[in-house]
Structure formats: C-alpha cells, structure tokens
Amino acid sequence: MKLATVDYFILALYFVFVLGIGWRLRKKISTSGDFLTSGRSVPVWITSLAFLAANLGAQELVGMSASGAKYGIMTSHFYWIGAVPAMIFVGVFMMPFYYGSRARSVPEYLKLRFDEKTRTLNAVSFAVMTIFSSGISMYALGLLLQLVLGWSFTTSVFVSAAIVLAYTFLGGLTSAIYNEVLQFFLIVLGFSPLAIMAVAKAGGWGGMASRLPSVMTHSWKYMGSASQNPMGIEVFGLVAGLGFVLSFGYWCTDFLVVQRAMAADSMSAARRTPILAAIPKMIMPFIVIVPGIAAVALANAATGYHLPMKNGGPDYDQVLTTLMAQFYPAGMLGIGLTGLMASFMSGMAGNVTAFNTVFTYDIYQSHIHPNAPDSHYLTVGRLTTIGGVALSIGTAYLAQHYNNIMDLLQLVFGFVNAPLFATFLLGMFWKRTTGHGAFAGLLSGTIAAALVHGLTVAEGKGGWLGTVNTFPSTMAQNFWIAIFAWTTCFVLTIVVSLATRPRAEAELRGLVYSLTNIKHDEGVSWYMRPGPVAIAVGVLLLFLNFWFA
Amino acid sequence: MLDLRIPTGGFFLLAGVILLALGLIDPNARAALTDVNVNLYCGIAMIVFGVFMLLLAFRAAKKAS
C-alpha cells in the first residue's frame, strides 16, 4: 500500500487534534482524582462511547475482520452473546456498588467488600496484565505498519508511544476518554464506507450468501454440534463459556472498561453508560466483521480481489488492509489508516490510564506510601504514566523477540481472569461471602483453569499433564477452561465462606445488594432510566440474533 | 470543561473539506475495485457530521450563557 502526501497530512491533522485535546484539558487537573478518575464529571454520552471504544483496540478491527473471513457471521457471537448481555447486567445490577461505594477502582471495591489480600491479588494481576496488553497493542501496530507501509518497527512504536504519553500525561483519564470518543467516530466514519462498498460489490447480502458456504452466513444454524461449524464449539460451551463466564468476567469486572463508567457525573449516568454503549456495540459487527465476510465472497466472485496469502494459506489478518487498498483512493485511504492507528493508540492509552489508577491507589497508596497529601499522589500518578508507557515499550520489544513468552503470558492471564466473575457475583449478591472465601475461590479457580489446560488438548495446545479430553479447537478449549474455573471458584468461595466468620452487616451497607437501598432515578425521565433502556436494548439484541440465525 | 463536540466537529469538518476538494479536483481518482467517487461522498458525509457536532456545541454554549 502506498500513501500519498494528502494521507500523511490527514494523519498529522489527527495527531494535532489529539494533542490539542490533551493540552486544553491540562488546566483541569489539580487533584489526583482529576487525573486518575476524571473527578467524576464526564457527560454520559462521552462515557458510553469511551466504554465501547476503550475495548475497540488492536485486536478488534484487524482481528474481527480476520475472524469474519475465517468463520463468517458466527463471529458476531463475540458481540451479541459475548458482550451485550454482560454490558446490560453491569449497568443494571453492578454499577450501583462500584459507583455508590465511592471506590476509586475495581480492586478498591474488593478491599471495601472483602479484605486487603483479595484487593492486592486483583490489583497486581491487573497491573501486570494491562502493561502487557498495552505492549502487545504497540507491537501489533508496529508490525502492521511495517508490513503495510514499510515503516520501521522502532519508529512506529516510539512515535505512537510518545503521542499517547503526551496526551495522557497532560490530561489524565479525561484526555484518554475524550480521545477514545474521537477515535470511535473516526472508525465508524472511516470504515463503514468500506463495509458498504465491499458488500455492494459482492452483490449485497443475498449475493454474498450465494457465493459462500451456508455456514458463513448463519450465526446459530450450525451451533448444534461442534463438528458442524468451523469454530468447533457447540451451543452450551458457547453460551456458558463465552456468553456467561468470559463475557461477564471481562465487561463486569475489568477495570479498563468499568473505569469509564465510574467517571460519569451521576449514579444514573454511570448505570446508563454500559447499557447505552451496548447499542453501538451491537451494530459494530456490520463495520468490523461483515467486510471480512464480503472479502471471501469477492474472492470467490472473480472480481479481481484475491485473499492475501502467507505460507500457502490465506493470511486473514491482512484482509482489512487489502480491502482498504482496493476500495479507497488517496484521501479516504488516509482516513482509514488514521482510524486504524487511532484504535491502536487509544487501546494503549486505555491500558495506561487503568494501570495508573490501580498502581497509584491500590499498590502505591495502600502498600508503599500511605497517608501522604493528595498532591503527592498526583505526582505519583503522572510519573506512573511515564513508567507505564516505558514498560509497554519494553513489552512490545519483548513480544517482537519472544513470541512464545507472550502466548504463555496470555494463557496465564486467561487462568487468572476466568474465575473473577464468580467472586464479584457472590460478593455483591450474597452478604455471607467472606474475604477468606473470596481469596480461596480466586486462587483455586486459577489453579483449576491451569489443570484443565494441562489435561486437555486442542490443536496441539495444552495436555502437559496428560490427555483426558481432546477439543476440536482452542476456542472450545478456552471456553471450557473458563467454565471449570468459574465453577470451582463459585463452589469453593461458598464452602470457605460458610466455614469462616462473616463481617458485620453494618460494614457491608452500600456494598451488597440486600443491604443497599438503591435509589430510583428521581428527576430522570422514565425512558432515560437504566431499566427501560436495558429492555429496549435486549429486544434489539433478540431481533438481530433471529435475523441472522 | 472543554466541550468534546468542538474538536470532534472541527476535525471532521476539516477532513471532510480536504476529501471534498480531492473529489472535485480529481473526480476520476479510483481505487482498483470501485467506480464511485469515494472522496466526494465521504467528504460530504464528514462535513455534514462535523457541522452537526459544531451546531450542537454552539447550541449548548448559548443555553449555558
């Protein structure tokens, strides 16, 4: 792909706006709360789009079009089953505790609800994980720009890191959130023309369906058994593993996204944030997955488009960039590329800002240097931004040199994350849950995840303890690992809780469902309240699932 | 606090004007697989979106003062 001067100009223009937003917001920062939690003052339409965009990073655009080309419309399960129900749940049921408890982070909620050791376990694993995610995002960006444009890996990594550092250092979380929203609009306006043109060229949805195997244009029809569909997963594994454990574990407990809702300016707005974000989330598959499906149809239709190849097989990760090169002239190509870079960078910024808050409040303030004046923590927060970006750069190079270490780390993070939702569910809805129970449940859930991985094999992965079962795909293996980890954590938390001394009910007010008086949203029109909005979103979700069944 | 609609509207208005200009100056610029003047139509769409964002921001500022 070759860029014209005008494409570089558009890219530069975007960077000017991104840095300008950071520069304008710098005056607003006077306390650590302003820097790390936006002082709880961001309007709801911004927090909603940021809630969505913080997750719309590296893996999403490139990875989802690749999956679309590989699996077809079935990929939409990652949105319609694997995200939207959890987004509704966190808004309606969990946000009252995150926002209402005055916790500044998800680990801090665990400290208030349980104890210091549960918080520290969660804070440390989250902090390490965000640094690696941010580094992997940077690595993927460097690799893509090297491959597509021939830019040097080092230049791409350092330029993008410098820009992210500049705007998060100046404006903190608010600046990261604002730029995530700008990036969201850029992706929608920059990539929906591509989706429309690719589908139109392939003869519309009907034309695509006639040129593709039927399994690629139905999301549910072939889910009856694992052998019928290319994902190698059946309905129960999909719904329980992806739709329940992994999805709720991510959207309801991951501080990266929850932090966006916690920055909202009122309880009602915080609750509406993830529910409103579910609307564009539902529509995202049409922008990120459908072009991938259309690419295969175009390749089958002898239009002159060929799927990119690598080592004799299709290179799905390049589907999106080859489509851009085939449909966009100089100018619009610049917009598309800017959108791609913006999504990598805001993925990075999202991780860095979440890391900042957790490190400053949950590790530094609670273990290293408590009881300092607030200005001290503001300084620490700013320095952590620099440290976080520097560590991410290091991770990007580590990923470049040792691909296997990265795969191993991502596997371990999966083990740590899988049981999390059981802990939060019990913590928020069963007042008898104790700190010892939560801690034991989390540890045993992680160990259970590792054991299932060690005892099962899929595509040559796992089985380092023997082979009890063989899965048709690593995706199926991951879903089942999650199901076992969650169940182990759920059961062990209950058993240990019953055997240990409960906390006094007075200490749990505002932290547990049965001991909290959740105020109705007085002064908010009925159609803006979380309940009615959630029902409307749910109806739309059902409609989409039936339409593409 | 900074109204995000102002920089958002500003960016898309400028980017839209650039694309529209490209589409008018070189109406035959085509990528391999399209026969549409992509820059022209996308430019118009971005200008409409940018102006809409700026209008919302000005209306809110007027209301506040």
- Element order of chain A: H for helix, E for strand: HHHHHHHHHHHHHHEEHHHHHHEEEHH
User: Helical residue percent of chain B?
Assistant: over 70%
Number of helices of chain A: 22
Strands of chain A, count? 5
What is the number of strand segments of chain B? Answer: 0
**Order of neighbouring strands in the sheet with most strands of chain A:** 4-3-5
Report Rg of chain B: 15 Å
What is the terminal-to-terminal distance of chain B? Answer: 14 Å
Find the biggest chain interface: A-B, 36 and 29 residues
- Percent of residues in helices of chain A comes to over 70%
C-alpha Rg of chain A (nearest Å): 23 Å
Largest sheet of chain B: none
What number is the mean pLDDT of chain A? 90
Indicate the low-confidence ranges of chain A by residue numbers: none
Number of domains of chain B: 1
Shape of chain A: globular
How would you briefly describe this protein structure?
Chain A has 22 helices and five strands. Chain A is mainly alpha-helical and 549 residues long.
How are the elements arranged and paired?
The complex is a heterodimer of chains A (549) and B (65).
Chain A: H1 5-25, H2 32-37, H3 44-53, H4 58-71, H5 77-80, H6 84-100, H7 106-113, H8 116-149, H9 153-201, H10 204-211, H11 235-253, H12 255-262, H13 267-288, H14 290-300, E1 309-310, E2 313-314, H15 319-327, H16 332-368, H17 374-401, H18 403-417, H19 420-429, H20 435-455, E3 456-458, E4 461-462, E5 469-471, H21 474-499, H22 530-547
Parallel strand pairs in A: 3-5
Antiparallel strand pairs in A: 1-2, 3-4
Chain B: H1 5-25, H2 38-64
Describe this structure in words.
The complex is a heterodimer of chains A (549) and B (65). Chain A has helices at residues 5-25, 32-37, 44-53, 58-71, 77-80, 84-100, 106-113, 116-149, 153-201, 204-211, 235-253, 255-262, 267-288, 290-300, 319-327, 332-368, 374-401, 403-417, 420-429, 435-455, 474-499, 530-547; strands at 309-310, 313-314, 456-458, 461-462, 469-471. The longest helix of chain A has 49 residues, at 153-201. With 549 residues, chain A is an all-alpha fold. Chain B has 65 residues and is mostly helical. Chain B has one domain. In chain B, helix 1 (5-25) runs antiparallel to helix 2 (38-64).
